From TrEMBL:
Residue span, Penicillin-binding protein transpeptidase domain: 267-587
InterPro entries registered for this protein in UniProt: Beta-lactam/transpept, Beta-lactam/transpept-like, PBP_dimer, PBP_dimer_sf, PCN-bd_Tpept, Penicillin-binding_protein_2
GO cellular component entries: plasma membrane
One example of a Gene Ontology biological process annotation: regulation of cell shape
GO MF annotation: an example: penicillin binding
Record organism: Novosphingobium subterraneum
Record field: compositional bias (Basic and acidic residues): 640-652
Primary location: membrane
Keywords: Carboxypeptidase, Cell inner membrane, Cell membrane, Cell shape, Cell wall biogenesis/degradation, Glycosyltransferase, Hydrolase, Membrane, Peptidoglycan synthesis, Protease, Transferase, Transmembrane, Transmembrane helix
Region (Disordered) location: 630-693
Domain of life assignment: Bacteria
Protein name: Peptidoglycan glycosyltransferase
Subcellular location field: Cell membrane; Membrane
Membrane topology (UniProt): Single-pass membrane protein
Length: 693
């Protein structure tokens, strides 16, 4: 065995020195690395960490810009902004949602159904999406929340501006509404403004179409704050730049009146300047209150709207499609005149006319006797149009219908329109692979069968018949727009149609109660009743609401110098008698607002108040019945827009070819016979029926 040498002090010293050297070298290397890193951070990364330090000390907050106002033709606000105290929640900053909501409910006196609505939104919201808790707060409630902020992380009280619609539901479909930006909106723009508490974007209607113009440029606020978030001092503020206002052709007073005058019915009113095409009123009722949508609609109100069989989410002016009924007869008569038919040519009406192997009845089963063109219009005789339409042919009638605006889509600032159907032989062959038949012409000539129109098209038709100009509906005010060109109609033909339409209201026609209570102003018009279901199901006048006939009325005034045209459609109103009193009062408002308002106020006493009051009463009834137990069916902001669009779906064209005769509905009861009018004097309706029985 090898003998081990003894360990001496020299050996120990040698080992210690070697180990000390290695350890010292390692320590020196680590120190050198630390010194190098420190130098790198202090010198090379100086700007980065200085900026980070500054960001910890200074908070930069975006200030949402004030949206541009939407104004009527006289500068009155249809959509405005108002100073607002509000409270929002940022979901990913809330530590204890239950405790936070309980505290806020007590401080802000939130109703149980409102608390549940907020909880629903918190469940659906992305972490960065602000959720509105309350808006339009008084100072005391706003201050109560502000002083409790240290114990309410994620709660953001702020002063700013909120969107406000003074007329409420009267402009719901006209203006649209705003709402908080969705996650999809943020993904498209990647704009931090979209996730700023209190900021809202256009979700529907004009608010959405003109978003870029109305939005404005955000401001910013820089403040010095402690690590706990307490603000030490303001370092500077950059003011926001408000969005640009939009001036519309709408008359705000007339718009509100038209919406209110529809009353308890479901329908629409369109009023146009028939010289320029300016849309003065475009009301669709019932509607929704855009203030509620902007604040975040709750489950009770959503249940109230979504279950309403009058479909308040549908813009009936642009998306409602209806058979126009007898309102097309002036258009058909004009096509006859332009095709060369003598207006004095007559036919005997015995209550019906055989076409092929079918009998097409007149609405008056007792018959009208001898009927020429004028009597055919003011007495709305179906047999007259049955007879001569077969001679003229559907191609010429359809061409005139399109020329006057039916079946046409207009350049309006809305996402979509339903332009309906003007049928002709080529259309039927393309649609159903079937040949056109005589009964198709007969049905179409009284506004039944395949023919479908929307109320805006009817207003354009009335405007073009009244003025003889190719007016196009427009909503943006342009006082320097060029004159509208003539359509090239014979003035003699137009005068004849005008006189016959004046007789509808002011003489022996079907709408004597539509006379205007205004001196020296005569209204010319045409009634129409559109069949909804066959007589074997209901008589169209009474019974279940959904089985009643639609009521139509088109008109213009003054009859001798047309300036304003109007179209009214009342869904399931039981016939034209539901439509022309509304048109009469709306047109009266233009010439004598005081008289019109007196009539409306009497009606609203019977109806249970104005639109806002009736909606409030209905909401309270729903809240009392359902309250906190209302189903959790409120869509989020993105799907809400989709649901609104779904609610605006229109009637589809018939899936199969129609082969039956359309049974014309009775027109309103005729007024007592009057003597034949003498030759026209200024501001009176001329006679168009000399020699007609």
């Amino acid at each position: 065995m090898r003998q081990r040498l003894p360990v001496t002090s020299a050996i120990l010293t040698n080992r210690f020195e070697r180990r000390s050297f290695v350890l010292g070298a390692l320590q020196g290397g680590v120190g050198l690395l630390l010194a190098t890193r420190l130098g790198y951070l202090a010198v090379a990364q100086n700007e980065k960490y200085e900026a980070a330090s500054e960001s910890n000390r200074v908070n930069l907050t975006l200030i949402p810009p004030r949206r541009g106002w939407v104004l009527d033709r006289f500068g009155k606000a249809l959509a405005a902004n108002r100073a607002d105290f509000r409270v929002d929640l940022i979901p990913d900053r809330v530590d204890d949602p239950d405790r936070t909501m309980a505290t806020l409910a007590g401080l802000l006196s939130l109703a149980p159904d409102k608390v549940r609505d907020i909880r629903d939104k918190l469940d659906k919201a992305r972490g960065f999406q602000p959720v509105e808790v309350a808006s339009s707060l008084d100072w005391d409630k706003f201050a109560a929340v502000s002083v409790r902020l240290p114990e309410l992380p994620g709660v953001i009280p702020q002063r700013g501006y909120s969107r406000y619609y003074p007329a409420g539901a009267s402009v719901g479909h006209l203006v649209g509404y705003v709402g908080a930006a969705s996650a999809e909106d943020y993904e498209k723009e990647r704009n931090p403004l979209l996730i700023t508490p209190g900021f809202k974007i256009g979700k529907d209607g004009l608010e959405k179409h003109f978003e870029a113009r109305l939005r404005g440029v955000p401001g910013a606020r820089r403040v010095e704050a402690t690590a706990s978030g307490r603000i030490v001092r303001d370092l500077g503020t950059r003011e926001d730049v408000p969005g640009k206002p939009i001036a519309l052709t709408i008359n705000a007073g007339l718009q509100d009146y038209a919406a209110r005058r529809i009353g308890l019915e479901s329908g629409s009113v369109v009023v146009m300047d028939c010289e320029t095409g300016d849309v003065l009123a475009m009301a669709s009722m019932p509607s929704f209150d855009p203030n509620s949508f902007s604040d975040g609609i709750g489950r009770v109100e959503w249940k109230m709207l979504s279950e309403d069989d009058h479909v308040p989410l549908r813009n009936k002016v642009l998306r409602g499609l209806y058979p126009p009924g007898s309102t097309v007869k002036p258009m058909v008569a004009l096509s006859f005149l332009e095709a060369g038919l003598d207006p004095n040519a007559s036919v005997g009406c015995g209550g019906g006319l055989r076409v092929g192997n079918r009998v097409f009845h007149c609405w008056n089963r007792r018959g009208h006797g001898t009927v020429d063109m004028a009597k055919g219009i003011y007495q709305s005789c179906d047999v007259y149009f049955y007879h001569f339409a077969q001679q003229i042919g559907m191609d010429k009638i359809a061409a005139m219908a399109r020329r006057l605006g039916l079946g046409q889509e207009f350049p309006m600032p809305y996402p979509g329109q339903s332009y309906g159907t003007v049928p002709d032989p080529a259309w039927k062959l393309r649609k159903y692979k079937k040949e056109w038949a005589l009964y198709d012409t007969v049905n179409a000539t009284i506004g039944q069968g395949y023919m479908l129109v929307n109320p805006l098209q009817q207003a354009v038709m009335a405007s073009r018949i009244a003025s003889g100009r190719e007016v196009m509906p427009r909503l943006l005010l342009d006082r320097n727009a060029p004159p509208v060109k003539s359509m090239g109609f014979s003035q003699e033909h137009l005068d004849y149609i005008h006189a016959a339409m004046s007789e509808v209201v002011n003489g022996r026609g079907t709408a004597g109660r539509a006379r205007l209570p205004v001196d020296n102003v005569l209204l010319a018009g045409k009634t129409g009743t559109a069949q909804v279901v066959g007589l074997n199901i209901a008589n169209g006048k009474s019974g279940a609401w959904k089985y009643r006939d639609h009521g139509h009325f088109i008109c213009f005034a003054p009859f001798d110098k047309p300036k304003y045209a109007c179209a009214v459609v009342i869904e399931h109103g039981g016939g034209s008698a539901a439509a022309y009193p509304i048109a009469r009062d709306v047109m009266t408002y233009i010439f004598a607002p005081g008289k019109a308002m007196a009539v409306l106020e009497e009606f609203e006493k019977q109806w249970g108040g104005n639109v806002q009051q009736r909606m409030s009463s209905r909401y309270n009834a729903f809240a009392a019945k359902y309250g906190e137990t209302a189903p959790k069916t409120v869509p989020d902001d993105e799907s809400l827009t989709e649901r609104v669009e779904d609610g605006r779906k229109t009637a589809e064209e018939p899936a199969t070819a129609q082969t039956d005769a359309a049974a014309p509905r009775p027109e309103p009861e005729q007024p007592p016979p009057v003597v034949v009018l003498q030759p026209a004097a200024p501001n009176t309706a001329p006679s168009v029926s000399a020699g007609v029985q």
